[in-house]
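Ticket opened by: R.M.
Priority: normal
Category: complex prediction / small molecule

The reporter submitted a protein together with iron/sulfur cluster and asked that the result be attached to this ticket for the collaborator who will pick it up next week. Submitted input follows.
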Amino acid sequence: MNEIQQRIFELKKQQDAVILAHNYQLPEIQDAADFVGDSLDLCLNAKKTTAKTIVFCGVDFMAEAAAALNPEKLVLHPDNTACCPMAAMLPPATVIEAKKQHSGAPVVLYINTLASAKFHADALCTSANAVNVIRRFKEKDILFGPDKNLAYYVQKQLPEKTIIPLPREGHCIVHNHSILLEDVQLLKEEHPNALVLAHPECIPEVQAISDYILSTNGMLHKAKGLSAKAFIIATEEGICYRLKKENPGKNFYKMESALCRNMKKIIAGRLIASLEKKQFEVKVEEKIAARMRELIEEMLKVNRSN
Ligand code: SF4
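Result attached by the on-call engineer:
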């Protein structure tokens, strides 16, 4: 254990804190975390922890979910400027307006949404369970946001539904702009035996040439479970650190430019400062938090029944 890791370890004990980190975090943060996972895993772990303090290494909407699930705990976000631009593309006013225009259409929101927008949703989902969550609605028209590429993926799986993207052009800047068809094709030419694992936030053209379309946790399971020895990973590059660590005998080719600057704002120094100074506390208004707890509980029921 190096000096920085030692300091984090001591502070964690002093503060009775648990560190949760998203799969896209820097290696130094993943190594310091008690748990590394995707949005759904982190929700589950935030719910289960008995620690008094949760330090959430990820972006704003994830820390908000942890705070909503744990109103009695201190939830810290080491850098409160680490905000997801895609979540910001769907302000609550857009959801309210869409509900008026499409009356009767349920609103299903991806977990990558701000708490204030989630308050107006009928259901929440992650990239791993979006299809199963939407399938359960009897209505044909479904308002779905904020990612248009995930909406496209769900629409392909559920042709009997009409998925209305909300907003029309919502997207993750990393998956939409930094994982281009040409980049994936080039890696395929260089590594013809490699399987392509793509996130459903990728553009339809990249989804079309992928072998599997998966959430980040889905990628971890798939890479472990398959006998293939090489994979092209079409998602934010941070996951490759964990993939390599858990599968030392396999090769993972990452998309070099697919880097989320907001995720990477959490560095070890900020994590230490967060534990030392108890900053930055995340609070969600109780009315909104209570609705989020209901929605997350409903979403988890869908997972348990599939
Ligand atoms: S990778 Fe995309 S969706 Fe995830 S936090 Fe960054 S901008 Fe948001």
